[in-house]
Amino acid sequence: MSDPMDDAKPRNLGGSLPVPNVQALAARTDELALTPTLLRRYVRPQPNTVDLRPDAPAGAEQEHVPVIDLGRLLAGGRDEEAARLRSACEDWGFFQVVNHGIPEEILEEMKRNVMEFFALPLAEKAALAQEPGGVEGYGQAFVVSEEQTLDWADMLFLLTQPPSYRDLHLWPSRPSTFKNCLESYSVEVQRVAGELLGAMAENLGVRDHSDLTRLAASQSVRMNYYPPCPEAHVDRMLGLSPHSDAVGLTLLLQVSPVPGLQIRRNGGWLPVTPLPGALIVNVGDVIEVLTNGKYKSVEHRAVVNTREERMSMATFHNGNFGTTYGPLKEVVGEEEPRYRNVSVEEYTKLVFSSKLDGKNIMDAMKIN
Ligand code: OGA
Ligand code: NI
């Protein structure tokens, strides 16, 4: 019998077509820089819908994503917090987690390192550029055709856990604290992800919690840099296209104070304002598969603004390569499974060969 291979990652997971560096493009102030031809690839045919809650009665108060106190969830007064988590997973797909036990210094250090990295000269960042056919490094993801509308952002994507998945030559060596900082951050966030998944397993009545906590076995990070965008196009550009996360569980750190994340809610787009020290958590597509649709991944996007740059850092959690994803028998019960079984490797390749487009990955996973 062979163990699930947690010490090897497949090499050819896919890649993205090369695209211009957006930070450099946005920084150009010469006359010829931001011509319609250059910007054409970023401008959407339709203006972005902005309506927050089209169905809300006039004067209704704006909703806020639920807040989960992890300390309380794991300690005594479990029931109330567990019920809050259950409804966050069933009804929202998004919540903020506070009292998570990650030292404030680690969060602040991580933010500082991400900001310092993106502030480096282009040539230094370009030394970490994605290699053809590779997903890790500095560049862009999910560009599969020359025709698709591009997002107004750059990103740095790295695999962080388990350590054997790391490609350390793509980890920044400047700022000099980056690697150590990412290591500490990664361990803390992975712990929180595991604890949340354990609480979800409890809520779902899944006896063997590892059926869910195994979704924290591997981890990757996506650091997003959204430059200010040209005034004339702000309503037709996006920093990140509407998508759900094709992963197990995402924990997002808002790096700079500028808002921008919006989630799909009641047919509109609801802005999320991070609480100080909180992480924003969302249910990924894989949890939707495992729970047979009981918990749903929710679409979200990032808007840009004309004045300020914005940075964020998403930490994704998944099962290890060598394992599979499929609806859990205990959750499916007497129902029909709605999603097919797929190996983590096949699933990952599907994700990296697709464009970021709403819940397209979920559609590909659905039975019939
Ligand atoms: C992501 C994401 C949102 C943001 O990286 O998957 O949804 O606010 N980011 O940057
Ligand atoms: Ni996302």
UniProtKB/TrEMBL annotation:
Alphabetized UniProt keyword annotations = Iron, Metal-binding, Oxidoreductase
Q: Does the keyword Iron apply?
A: yes
Extract the SUPFAM superfamilies matched here.
Clavaminate synthase-like
One Pfam family this chain carries?
A: 2OG-FeII_Oxy
The family database entries (InterPro entries) matched by this protein are listed as: DIOX_N (IPR026992), IPNS-like_FE2OG_OXY (IPR044861), IPNS-like_sf (IPR027443), Oxoglu/Fe-dep_dioxygenase_dom (IPR005123), Plant_2OG-oxidoreductases (IPR050295)
Q: Where are the transmembrane segments?
A: none
Cofactor(s) for this UniProt protein: Fe cation
Q: Which GO terms describe its molecular function?
A: metal ion binding; oxidoreductase activity
Q: Which part of the chain is the Fe2OG dioxygenase domain?
A: 217-319
Family to which this protein belongs? Belongs to the iron/ascorbate-dependent oxidoreductase family.
Name-wise, this protein is: Fe2OG dioxygenase domain-containing protein
Organism for this UniProt entry: Triticum aestivum (Wheat)
